[in-house]
Amino acid sequence: MKTTLLVLIDWAQEDLLRPVLILLCAMLLFNLPTLLYKARLFIRAILYFIGCWDKSWSKPQDPGSIFGPHLSQGLPVERRTIYFVRHGESTWNDTFNKGKHRSTVVFILGFIPGLIKALLHELYLLLSGKLDSWFYDAPLSPLGLSQVDELRSFLLDTKNLTGTDAEHLKILRADPGAPRSTILCSNLRRSISTLVGGFSERLTRRPEDKILLVTALQEISRNPDTLSITPPHSPVHASWMEKRSPMCDYSRLLSSQVDVSLHVGDKPINTNGLKRMLDFCDFVFSPSVKDEYIIVGGHSIWFRSFFNMFLPFSVHHVAKNKKIVNGGIVTFDLLKAETKRGPKYMVDPKTIKVIYGGF
Predict the structure, then answer these.
(1) CATH code of the domain covering residue 175
(2) Is the pLDDT assigned to residue 23 strictly greater than 60?
């Protein structure tokens, strides 16, 4: 009797498993282009994780030692006002980072269930043929979307703001009579979506405004969430959560007001964060950027590294040690001086100011 029961169980398992496997194979073959593209992404993620040197570079010369004599001698210095806007929380952060919104105990207890949820969602996206991912170029999480909505509300609120705060807000919103500003962004979806959602009122009111994607702003890390899922010069697509968001019409704004002309694809394996930071500095002072005020959508490690490299080394500032909070905005002046060794850059420490959120 026992043997017969075991045989029946084996038969039932095999009988149930076979159609499931056939269905899975059929779904994968039906979505073969997406499967192949995601396979390439997976291979690239492994190669990048193993072989990249993104966080490895030699410390440059102290900007303070360059600009101190330069400024004291009255030599010409160019200046741009920069607004760093950090993205909202991503799905990768939701799975792997504790964050400030939950305790260590809650994070530990929820980690395995959260990881299983993320893996199952990734499988669903693969089988349904969607060019989307929970892990690769991670989009905004539900919490991230709420943080972006709070940023949007802040930019719309003009109460109790006077002096320089009001002037900064006018520039960020592109109010009538405010100085013109250029919007630049990392080519990673969470940063793009943060600017699209947070600045949706400005973008809707000013359809001529574009968010220009700049690969130099791509996050400094070896993790797959810092690799771009969007092919070069291709439209950025809203994630499954953004399509359901009542905050704004993400699909329309992403397709109409994100400029992908400079999106040349992923950061190369043989690059590093300092090279991209210097490329960014060169770009904002180039003839391509005509405005003095630059809004920059980007990432915590990139921003913190930037302050470490371009603030005078003798200056002790919280920006060197702490991340800008999700959805936060910090402004400062970036200086450029021409030297015998080429252009050099420095963050003016006296001009650093928190506009929203802080560190």
Answers:
(1) 3.40.50.1240
(2) no
